[in-house]
Amino acid sequence: MMTILKVQQLQKTYVVGNTEHQVLKNIQLTIQKGEFVSIMGPSGCGKSTLLYTVSGMDQATSGQITFLQHNISTMAEPQLAKLRLEAMGFIFQQHHLLKNLNLFDNIVLSAYLAKKHSRQKINTQATQLMAKLGIAQLAKNDITQASGGQLQRVAICRALINNPAILFGDEPTGALNTAATSEVMDVLTTINQEGTTILLATHDAKVAAKTERVLFMLDGEIIAETTLGKYDPINSDLFKREQQLNRWLVQLGF
Ligand SMILES: Nc1ncnc2c1ncn2[C@@H]1O[C@H](COP(=O)(O)OP(=O)(O)OP(=O)(O)O)[C@@H](O)[C@H]1O
Q1: Which atom of ligand 1 is the closest one to the Cα of 49?
Q2: Nearest residue by C-alpha to atom 12 in ligand 1
Q3: Which domain holds residue 35?
Q4: How many angstroms separate the alpha carbon of residue 6 from the centre of ligand 1?
Q5: How many structural domains does the chain have?
Q6: Taking the CB of the first residue and of the last residue of the chain, which one, N or C, has fewer CB atoms within 10 A?
Q7: pLDDT tens, position by position, 67-83
Q8: Is ipTM over 0.85?
Q9: Nearest C-alpha to atom 7 of ligand 1 is from which residue?
Q10: Of all protein residues, whose CA lies closest to atom 17 belonging to ligand 1?
């Protein structure tokens, strides 16, 4: 096993007026390459802050964050931005696609900016990704010509275009209906099976039940975790996984 992300004694404090608000308290977290991990916990417990801090989008107050061989905690912003572009993918509750570009161009834009590969190679990769996610026919559409679930799949293609080592998701299914949530989770499961490490925050136990390991946060700390093992859409008993997770969440008072 190879550790992809190691977080030690991470603290994050926001100062609002004269008041310090400690949002992350002494977080320890290790993610192995290839894992699919979710973070649950009540609203305001710090899930998003944790994702943004470990990915270097937000600065830690103290502690150490090691991503691959990079010490994120001490990296300068230009290097961090390059690392994020080349090695991390992000999906959010809202797709944040640009409305003046068609869906294909939304996907390729960050890879064109990264300039690591020729446009021809990037276009081929985008076409393959869209086909894999079942949205090839939407390439020329704009964002008003696709459903919420389809747009989120476009956002996933965009996040994967630079072949990131890790994909972060902040409530990636939060704006979707049940059917679209299930579709997106199946897509993420396939991507994970193919080797991409995934860390996502979710309120939804049905989403977390499809992940391999679930962390529970309360008031800025990870207070518990449970391992469900890899979800296999063909052979896994999803109902059993959901029951197991719900029992655990009830024990935690969630
Ligand atoms: N930029 C900021 N300045 C001040 N306080 C902030 C800032 N961002 C977040 N917070 C506070 O930090 C705490 C944790 O917020 P965060 O969004 O990380 O929680 P969360 O668990 O993701 O919540 P939700 O599930 O509702 O998205 C909250 O009390 C929030 O108000």
Answers
A1: 18
A2: 23
A3: 3-251
A4: 22
A5: 1
A6: N
A7: 999 999 889 999 999 99
A8: yes
A9: 14
A10: 48
What CATH number corresponds to the domain at position 36? 3.40.50.300
pLDDT of residue 116: 87
21 CB near ligand 1 (under 6 Å)? yes
129 Cα–ligand 1 center, Å? 33
Q: Give me ligand 1 centre to Cα 207, in Å.
A: 21
Q: Up-side HSE of residue 168: CA atoms within 13 Å toward CB?
A: 21
CA of 44 to the centre of ligand 1 (A): 5
Reported as a single tens digit per residue, the pLDDT across 234-250 is 888 999 999 999 999 99
Give the chain's residues under pLDDT 50. Answer: none
